[in-house]
Amino acid sequence: MSLPILSLKNVTISQEDKIILSNINLEVNRGEFIYVIGKTGSGKSSLMKTLYADLPLKQGEGQIVEFNLVGLKDNDIPFLRRKIGIVFQDFKLLPDRSIRENMLFVLKATGWTVKGDMDHKIDEVLDKVGMKSYADKMPHQISGGEQQRVAIARALLNDPDLILADEPTGNLDPQTSTEVLEVLRKINENGKTIIMATHDYALLMKYPAKTLKCEDATIFEVVQRTV
């Protein structure tokens, strides 16, 4: 039996000595799709930041994609993030570079050197999200939903074991949100583990999945009908 892709035991997450979440015990297995819900300020983003090592884990035990989050060294963080794809609410595309150049920037930053390999990988991931024909456009030339598709493609570049999506539909209208979630669900169906923080309960009702709720400084699983 394979190890969980994520395991947190008796974890407390703090920022500037303020406890955000405490007594977290959580396991995520490979291939799962999990929602994390909760009000603004309930700790969703702090949890995500802890998982991709933007916030250090100081209390409890944490393992993610075979990395120990406790005592993680700064020079190990880039290696951790190669195994985790991150999708943000605000896309974070470089505005002065084309879609292809945005992708090249990430590949070069993570050690790719062969142009043919890079071009092939970029075409592959853009094709998965239906954006291959947009590769030479600038970010401002495409819609918000299309930019988020590109951001998802970017998260797939290094074939990560896990995708963390932090409010990926937060800046999108309902129809576009549905389209983006369908892209993520398809990626999940192809074997990728996805943890998605969201406040969009309409999406949860349309695409039910295991749901964790941040509330009163803790995290617990909720059954779909009570969210």
From TrEMBL:
GO terms for cellular component: plasma membrane. InterPro entries: AAA+_ATPase (IPR003593), ABC_transporter-like_ATP-bd (IPR003439), ABC_transporter-like_CS (IPR017871), ABC_transpr_LolD-like (IPR015854), P-loop_NTPase (IPR027417). Gene3D superfamilies: P-loop containing nucleotide triphosphate hydrolases. GO terms for molecular function: ATP binding; ATP hydrolysis activity; transmembrane transporter activity. Keywords: ATP-binding, Nucleotide-binding. Residues 6-227 form the ABC transporter domain. PROSITE patterns: ABC_TRANSPORTER_1 (PS00211), ABC_TRANSPORTER_2 (PS50893). Belongs to the ABC transporter superfamily. Part of the ABC transporter FtsEX involved in cellular division. Important for assembly or stability of the septal ring. This is Cell division ATP-binding protein FtsE. It comes from Flavobacterium faecale.
